[in-house]
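User: Can you model how adenosine-5-diphosphoribose sits in this protein?
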Amino acid sequence: MRTQVAIVGAGPAGLTLARLLEVAGIESVVLENRSREYVEHRIRAGVLEQGTVELLREAGVGARMDGEGIVHHGINLQFDGERHHVPLTDLSGGRSIVIYGQTEVVKDLVAARVESGLPLLFDVDGVTVETLDSERPRISFERDGTRHELECDVVAGCDGFHGVCRTSIPAGVLSTFERDYPFAWLGILAAVAPSIDELVYAHHERGFALLSLRSPDLSRYYVQCRPDEPLEDWPDERIWEELQLRTALDGWTLHEGPVLEKGITGMRSFVVEPMQHGRLFLAGDAAHIVPPTGAKGLNLAIADVHVLAEAIVDRYASGSTTGLDSYSDVCLRRVWRAEHFSWWMTTMLHRLDGEDPFDAKLQLSLLRYVTSSEAAARSLAENYVGLTTL
Ligand code: APR
Ligand code: PHB
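Assistant: Here's the modeled complex, given as structure tokens:
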């Protein structure tokens, strides 16, 4: 088999890249080791930056997002028993965010690919990436018990944090930058109308809580927990109790409902540099992870493949590799801005076990500053909706 671009991984990065290439008339094959069912039911974050929304729309996969996504113009920061509104749109020159689950984005992209009849292979095993230094990289994989070889011009490593592409790069090429956080998020999807109009990020002495949503009758709520806590320690009643305590506000009620899903997500910051080696280009979680506070993961993945698609298109159109050569440098500017923003939001809002009282005072002072100074709020807003100047 031969194609122009071999894409490993059918998450948002791989599927969006495949779509952008299709629109530009470039061939690709997408290889995914999970089933379609699995990929379409993984619950992930749900905040799309305006730039992400525009790109999906331009790629012709925005119809359901435009119909069902919910446009938000602000978020709330809660601390010291008060809730403060941050008017993102007013502070960012009119930009906004759209609440639409990553799971739904993935479903739309898979449906578009299937409708186009282009290769998207699920349930592929044992993917290996070889001869990256040559003109003809080669991917080998197993499907239905048979080994296949795929030759291509470019490999897009969109296979997430645990994928094989990053690890196929020879030792000594990549530098790794990382930070672990001593806490995690326990997230629930609940069949109840959201009790809030816009997201609430709550700082509380019992730990952080986040109120988000998926639709007019689905709420997505999170509480900070320890990374090593078993899910069994968190029966639904305990989760609701913590959510109630951490988000309580006079004159406002958090409505409870049946919990449809729950899971614990660890938090880490991670970047490898460069995001490319020979003809392999890493995109999305394969190259970088952010903690979820600030909802940058999906948006960064889409921003990467936007840069990559343009570079590949240019390579075929003009023969120039300038875009491909600078891929990593261009992406890393946005990546590091998002790394800083996510770390900043995370450290401002979470409680550390055995926290130094000095740190706790600094957090509260920062929260008060961000919610009372227009300059500080504007900085949060432009990062949250996605910087356009990078
Ligand atoms: N071979 C083929 N596919 C693989 C392999 C492999 N060896 N390893 C992993 N994959 C697949 C995974 O099953 C997954 O479907 O690659 C895909 C990677 O998708 P994501 O993990 O969703 O990563 P990405 O597309 O970069 O999107 C980043 O996902 O984790 C969230 O918060 C993150 O929102 C961000 C987004
Ligand atoms: C979500 O809705 O899942 C969500 C929202 C905001 C975040 C993270 C996750 O910062």
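A couple of observations from the model: Residues 8-14, 31-34, 39, 44-45, 102, 124, 127, 158-160, 162-164, 284-285, 297-298, 301 surround adenosine-5-diphosphoribose (ligand 1) (CB under 6 Å). The CA atoms of residues 5 and 154 lie 5 Å apart.
User: Helpful, thanks.
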